[in-house]
Design goal:
This protein is 37% helix and 16% strand. The protein is α/β, with parallel strands linked by helices and 427 residues long.
Length: 427
């Protein structure tokens, strides 16, 4: 055990998760690579939990941060803030929501917490619909709507949460159905649920469930839900903390795979927009955003430095068509990983979109989750020079792959090869 690990254990809560038997200290990065304290280089296929969206040490972002820090680091929302207004204007336009209003926070957890505040205040209801297997953050209210036992430490809650079917396509009571029948069954379940309760404030859903193992419903499920929600006046909150900014390749926002019946009422975002800086936020139509009847501020949300980073990062993403790169290189990567998975008895499914890919592991010859294999592959991949993540529903048995969106074809090929070797260590 390293001395830093010992010091960490002495001052940190025991529920603060660390990867690896011998935890890794990352000291610096460049492009799609990071280095540890021993000077070893790794290809990064997890990007700080989908946060390093463009590249490590992206010159455009580090320059913007340095220049803004040299002028002023902090002022709070009590003063006009040019970088915040400029980034809000761009996010409002990109959201597609008419007459949109934007509020910046410091994390995805805080963004979802704000969205819940808005929805419950607007609808005068503390009842919320959420998806099974979901994850929305670690605050008291976000934990209350998290449908994943491994990340929900309490059932005490300020909210009444009702969980809906549909977030996981390949498991559960409707897994055997075709896509159209699956959607119809989930809609019928929602209709039945609403027949037994007072009208909820909102449905909150990740278009692709992140911590849940990169699972998703068939395209159009939330559009079908939207027809039902609209009849009851229920808001739709799309949690884009992991799916936003073009990561899925096919769409800029994850909800666009489900947009046939209109846009979400509220979109939450975070992670990738800051490329490592602490940015989260909420964008909503003005009627919803302006429903609060008390004053509020944010001490650190919308910080001039983080906003400067977000502007530079977003500009780089759009100017270099990283969404298109995610579609092209991600498509190649998922093909390679499916070929790798076909050679392993432990791989149940390789799924995903763009550069958001999950590999679900099972015990050979069964359909049972295999968290031990996931941990072993995580370790073996590290030994091979590749960093990945893991997640999943009932058991943490899914390898999570989400490199920076500037990933090159040779890097995708290299990562797939390392993962193939790692999978062969478990069968």
């Amino acid at each position: 055990m390293s001395s830093l690990h010992e010091r960490h254990l002495a001052v940190s809560p025991r529920w603060l998760t660390l990867y690896y038997k011998n935890p890794l200290e990352i000291t610096h990065g460049e492009g799609r690579h990071v280095w540890d304290a021993d000077g070893r280089r790794y290809l990064d296929f997890f990007g700080g939990i989908l946060t390093t969206m463009t590249a490590h040490a992206l010159p455009e972002v580090t320059k913007a941060v340095g220049e803004q820090a040299g002028r002023i680091i902090h002022s709070s929302t009590l003063y006009l803030n040019r970088p915040m207004v400029e980034l809000a204007e761009r996010v409002a336009t990109l959201s597609g929501i008419p007459d949109a209003r934007v509020f910046f926070t410091t994390s995805g957890t805080e963004a979802n917490d704000t969205a819940l505040l808005l929805a419950t205040a607007y609808r005068r209801s503390n009842q919320v619909l959420a998806m099974r297997n979901s994850y929305h953050g670690r605050s008291f209210s976000a934990v209350a709507i998290t449908g994943n036992r491994a990340w929900s430490p309490t059932n005490l809650s300020p909210l009444q949460t009702l969980y809906v079917h549909g977030g996981v396509r390949s498991r559960g009571p409707y897994a055997h159905l075709g896509d159209a029948e699956f959607i119809a069954a989930c809609v019928a379940d929602l209709e039945d649920l609403l027949g037994h309760t007072r009208p909820p404030a909102a449905l909150i859903a990740e278009p692709i469930q992140g911590v849940g193992g990169f699972t998703s419903p068939p395209d159009g499920l939330y559009a079908a839900f939207r027809r039902v929600l609209d009849r009851h006046g229920i808001l739709w909150i799309s949690d884009e903390v992991q799916t936003g900014w073009g990561r899925t390749g096919e769409h800029f926002w994850g909800w666009q795979a489900h947009g046939r019946n209109g846009l979400p009422d509220i979109i939450t975002f975070a992670k990738g927009i800051g490329n490592g800086m602490s940015i989260g936020g909420v964008v909503a139509r003005a009627e919803v955003m302006n429903c609060l009847d008390a004053n509020s501020i944010s001490t650190f949300g919308g910080s001039p430095v983080t906003m400067a980073a977000g502007l530079a990062n977003l500009s780089y993403l759009l100017e270099h068509d990283l969404q298109g790169n995610a579609r092209r290189v991600g498509g190649l990567l998922i093909e390679r990983l499916r070929a790798v998975g076909a050679a392993s008895d432990c791989v149940r499914e390789v799924r995903g979109r763009g550069l958001m890919i999950g590999i679900e592991l099972v015990k050979p010859g069964t359909d049972q989750a295999n968290p031990e294999a996931a941990t072993a592959v995580l370790e073996a991949a590290r030994e091979g020079g590749l960093l990945i993540g893991k997640g999943g529903g009932h058991d943490t048995s899914v390898l999570r792959i989400a490199p920076p969106l500037s990933l090159t074809v040779p890097e995708a090929e290299e990562g797939a090869e390392i993962l193939g070797r790692a999978l062969r260590t478990v069968g």
